[in-house]
Give the backbone structure.
Amino acid sequence: MHYGYFNGSVLPTDQISVGVTDLSLLRGYGLFDYFLTYNGRPFQWDWYWERFRNSAAGLRLPLPFGKDETYAVVMDLLARTGQPDVAFRFVMTGGYSPDSISIGTPNLMILTEDIHPVPPIQYEQGIKVILDDYVREMAEVKTTDYKRVILKAEEIRAANALDILYHKDGEISELSRSNFFIVRGNKLITPNRHILRGITRRTIMELAQADFQVEERPLLLSELYEADEAFTTSSTKKVLPITQIGELMIGNGQVGIRSRFLLERMDELVAKW
Ligand SMILES: *Cc1c(COP(=O)(O)O)cnc(C)c1O
């Protein structure tokens, strides 16, 4: 059973609803964040909170509370689930708008959800993605706008792929809901523009410091031909190998040892979190 917080009350999630004059419904004006708990503790809470605050500022929405009050709500909801490992979704909208265009008082929902882990076979074999010439609007803000990937669902399925890799003017940014890395020798390269700064990306860059030379810079499409390995990172995916991009096999088309190594480091970190 999952509970959620909505504007001061805690209710079973299926009893939470938002009114029809909310700006997220009328104008697509909303943001969210998403993180997991491990062993009863929110993973990288400080970093997720900072990002949520920045997203709210990006959409000019005032936060109804501070970090400590929000943390207390999170821990209360977590206790109600009776589980140590759950997902949290924060959703914040433009609020009820009297004239259907100006920002009202934001509506804030804090919801717990089951985690939907990646099937093990995807870690063993790696995944295929297809290229998409697109750049997200306000890429650095975790807005609720995922129209692009929803529209592309059929194309992705027809290609036997699982996601899309965005690029524009020869430069790669990220996947629809996760960040992108290539490995070349002992170099780890990840784009630094037109992306949502993933907390998993940040965690992996930190974990990799000791063993890799980490480069955060514009990454060209042409560099895919020279990559030994590629992988994507997100809260749910952790480090998920990408073995095929469109018709291009990455490296030898198998999951590489360095992607495996980084996934192991990540698994160790969350196990003792
Ligand atoms: C959420 C998201 C990510 C990954 O962020 P994490 O904090 O690692 O989960 C990357 N790109 C986009 C577009 C996202 O929405």
